[in-house]
Design brief:
Number of helices of chain A: 4
Oligomer: heterodimer
Strand content of chain B: under 5%
Distance between the termini of chain B: 62 Å
Shape of chain B: elongated
Helix content of chain A: 55-70%
Number of strands of chain A: 2
Order of helices and strands of chain A: HHEEHH
């Protein structure tokens, strides 16, 4: 404080010899690739990439066909077993309904008090049971499990 | 419900047959051999089901299909169990979807064994995706969806009716 008070006041001045020259020219960034080589690399990678994609797609399609072929080979056996299971369950459901509704007057099995559910071409026409019909008399927890599986797989 | 009292359903005793009590990896591993060995039964069953549209009329065909597949699996167990298990193990451990393209070596071994012992040749690539012509002695049922024929169609104009030139030209600006 003493020094500042005692010494002579000095104005801020430029350095001796003045400031250096101000840079006004543009300095270009160091460029690795020019436009031509950028385009060339772009097209080259595109062509190579799409060709590789095409080759891979062919392979994927080929594997899909092979897997589908294996699935179709076993398909009839699965369908045959499924048909038998559905028919068995249809009979069980019908018997269960007859037992359940035997004390209800005018109730006819498979109808709503004699009013048919479906318009059938003939009495014996086969209608595939709906999901809820198939599981009508099952345990509610089983029904829940199977409906989740049905909806999310 | 779907079945009324007048619907004729088969008895349970008619439906009880030995089912394929094996898991999916076994079926996938044996699929092409089963498909090749049981080709006639499979085609017969699928044609029946498609033509009749009623599983009750194709129960016998379905039983033949299951019995034939069961027979192939039994023979497989008898003759080629080791190769079969090796191939199945490879399929199971190689991918989650049992992709067939991962296990060509074990597949070749099983192919060889199956061909020598069971006389089933592995069908060529994509064989079961191809359309097949199936000859059967089962009578063909009448077609289910017959086209509707109307007895009184509107008679059209004959071809040589004179046609006047349009009075106001064409209705589309780009044709005028």
């Amino acid at each position: 404080m003493d020094a500042a008070a005692t010494s002579k006041r000095m104005q801020d001045l430029p350095p001796k010899g003045g400031y250096g020259p101000i840079q006004t020219e543009r300095i270009k960034l160091r460029s690795i690739l020019n436009a031509k080589s950028t385009w060339a690399i772009f097209f080259a990678t595109q062509v190579v990439g799409f060709y590789a994609y095409y080759l891979n797609l062919k392979l994927v399609r080929r594997n899909q066909i092979e897997m589908r072929s294996a699935r179709l080979a076993i398909w009839p056996a699965l369908i045959a077993e499924r048909d038998r299971a559905v028919l068995r369950q249809m009979r069980r459901n019908r018997d269960e309904e007859a037992e359940l509704m035997k004390n209800v007057e005018r109730w006819e099995v498979g109808t709503y008090y004699g009013e048919p559910i479906y318009f059938l071409d003939e009495e014996n026409q086969f209608r595939e049971p709906l999901f809820i019909e198939h599981f009508a008399h099952s345990d509610p927890s089983d029904y829940s499990t199977r409906s989740w599986r049905h909806l999310f797989t | 419900m779907a079945a009324t009292a007048k619907t004729i359903l088969p008895e349970e005793s008619e439906l009880n047959v030995q089912e394929l009590n094996v898991s999916w990896p076994v079926l996938q591993t044996a699929s092409v051999y089963i498909g090749k060995a049981c080709e006639w039964y499979n085609n017969e069953f699928m044609l029946c089901r498609e033509e009749e549209g009623d599983p009750r009329r194709c129960l016998d065909e379905g039983k033949h299909v299951t019995a034939c597949a069961m027979d192939v699996l039994k023979k497989m167990k008898k003759h080629c169990l080791e190769d079969f298990n090796a191939y199945m193990y490879c399929l199971e451990r190689s991918s989650g979807t049992l992709d067939l393209n991962k296990c060509r070596k074990t597949q070749a071994a099983l192919d060889d064994c199956v061909k020598n012992n069971m006389n089933i040749e592995r069908p060529p690539f994509g064989y079961f995706c191809e359309a097949k012509v199936h000859n059967t002695s089962r009578p063909r049922p009448p077609p289910r969806d017959e086209p509707i024929i109307f007895p009184d169609p509107t008679p059209g104009l004959s071809q040589d009716v004179p046609r006047e030139k349009a009075k106001y030209h064409n209705r589309f600006w780009y044709k005028s």
